[in-house]
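From: lab user (bench 3)
To: helpdesk
Subject: output format question, protein + heme C

Hello, I'm new to running complex predictions and I'm not sure whether the block I got back is the full result or only part of it. Here's what I submitted:
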Amino acid sequence: MPGGSVRKSLGLAAAIAVAMVVTEAAWAQTPQGDAARDFVVEKCSQCHTDSMFRDKRQDARAWEATAYRMVGRGAVWTSDDIKTIAAFLGQSFGPDAPRATH
Ligand code: HEC
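Helpdesk reply: Thanks, we reran it on our side. This is the complete output you should expect:
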């Protein structure tokens, strides 16, 4: 039906816009609103949104292992990048961090 695919892509665009707003809100609740957070957001959102991991709570070592799993999936990060990622997530998404309210 003509026009059907236009409506479909408008719907998709709206869904993406909503997902981005939700993602922003979840990250805004993290204790550090700083450069490390922006860095991690940029790194992780290359492939998926934070919905993939924002409910996860684990220590920095475990986040480091998670980051290496992402390297296995194609992320191109240096070991320094991974240290920054693990330190930030271990703090903001550590075992004692409050769960995201969303
Ligand atoms: C190169 C692409 C890529 C990047 C960059 C990436 N991921 Fe992933 N991630 C994936 C893929 C692919 C999956 C599997 C998706 C699925 O199972 O549907 C995944 C799944 C996950 C999972 C759930 C499965 C698991 O192995 O634990 C977590 C947690 C996760 N990612 C965290 C992160 C974090 C944190 C970052 C940023 C530091 C990140 N990812 C960046 C590709 C990536």
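A quick orientation on your result: The pocket of heme C is lined by residues 40, 43-44, 46-48, 52-53, 56, 66-67, 69-70, 73-75, 85, 89 (CB under 6 Å). Let us know if anything else is unclear.
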